Every structure is written in structure tokens, then in C-alpha cells.
Amino acid sequence: MRQFLIAGNWKMNLGPAESKAFFTDMSALTNDVGTKAEVLVCAPFVSLSTALEAAASVKGFQVGAQNLHFENNGAYTGETSASMLKELGCQYVIVGHSERREYFGETDEIVGKKVAKALQEGLTPILCVGEVLAERKSGEQNKVVETQLKGALDGLSADQIAKTVIAYEPVWAIGTGEVASPDQAQEMHKFIRAVLAELADENVAASVRVLYGGSMKPDNAEELLGQPDVDGGLIGGASMKADSLFKIVEIANKLT
Ligand code: PGA
Q1: Which of 67, 128, 234, 241 to mutate to test the pocket of ligand 1 (most atoms within 8 A of CB)?
Q2: Which residue, of 75, 85, 150, 162, has the greatest Cβ tally within 10 A?
Q3: pLDDT tens digits for 182-195?
Q4: CATH class of 5-255
């Protein structure tokens, strides 16, 4: 049985004070998110310490990071290593988000190195894949996602692949209010499992969690999370307010 993972991605939003306020709001809604779905927000680096401390007021609520560097340490100005994130108390880290690929030149090779480093340090990478609109329009979405998955996971053992989380995020649905239909999501998630079976094996493919991301909101989460191969969400806009994220958590709990 795959456990739902409801993961917020705050992107470059919510500094330390706002992160603290988020958890004040969240703890007014609940002091325990339960154990049915795993619940997480990925905060900016500067907010991680505050968010981790504040999250302690809501049992079961985790805080992760949005990026890491693939080296252990050294002369990489502005970068943050996996072991630093681990030391703070993060368990999850987003890797290869489409915004990093688009604005910061992250290639499949770089993304692959980051996934490998996260796993080596005992962090769980949330590997993001997804096609842009032109690729969807020309019917190339499977090819694109397959290339991204293989580029990032090739060379990892089946055990390592089993420890990753995949997020399918069609770029045309991110922050646009346009959402993939439940059928489009299900079809791609099933395809992702087929690629995972090729890279590892059927058991691994059946056990890895595949999240959907792209304008997931309280009013469309039930349909998306209700698909057999959708195991949670990577949620941007709707994760920045405690009440809308909590609504999605409640939907996941209800579906469990
Ligand atoms: P969105 O972002 O929910 O605001 O579309 C999702 C993401 O980029 O992870």
C-alpha cells in the first residue's frame, strides 16, 4: 500500500516570519495531521530552521527543502549540501523542479547527480518531471518524461529507485490554474510506473509514490487523488495558506 504524500512547495515565498505564521494558522486547524497521509512543506533555505521549529507544534507535519547541491561541500558559493539539510532535520528535498530546469539551467545530468547525492545522504528526493505545452500538443509527453526519468535515475540500484518519490508536473499546469484532467494524470502516472519497471523492477514500480503537481487545489484534489496511480500532490499556490493545504490533507485522509 502506498501512503499518500501531500507536499507543499512554497517556492521563493514565505520567509521566516511568514513561515512561523503559517504554522500558527495550521496549529489553529489541527495539532496532529495524523498518520494516514504524510504531510510536508518544502520551504526556502532561509526559512527551514524556523519552519522546522514551528512545525513541531503540529504532530506529523514535516518540513523539506526545494533544492540541494550534488557536492558534499567546498567552494560553491550560494549552495547548500545534502548533509546540511539532513543536519537541520529535513527528510525530503525537491529535485529538478521545472523552474530550476528552465531558469537555472538544470539538465537531466545535474538532476541525476542531485538525486544520487540526496539518496547517499539518506534524504528522499522528490524528482520532478513533466512536459511543456508544445510537447503535450505534439503528443511527445511520454517521450519527454521517459527521457527525464532515465536521465535522472539511470545508474541507480533498484533499492535506491525504491526510495525516491516522483512528481509528475506538466509545466503547462504549474501556476496557471489549468489542471491536468484526472485521466491525463492517471495515464501519465501509469506510464511512469512502466518506465520505473524498466529501470528497476515491477515491485519497485508498484511501490514508488508518484505525485501529481500543477494547480492542485481543494476543489480538484479529490478527483486527482482518486486516480489509482496518483499517490499525492506537489502543491505550490494552494500550499501557502494553512487552510487550503489542510483541506487537501483532509481529502487525502478521507480517501485513505
Ligand atoms: P502550483 O505549483 O500548484 O502553484 O501549480 C506546483 C509546483 O510547481 O510544484
Answers
A1: 234
A2: 85
A3: 999 999 999 999 99
A4: alpha beta
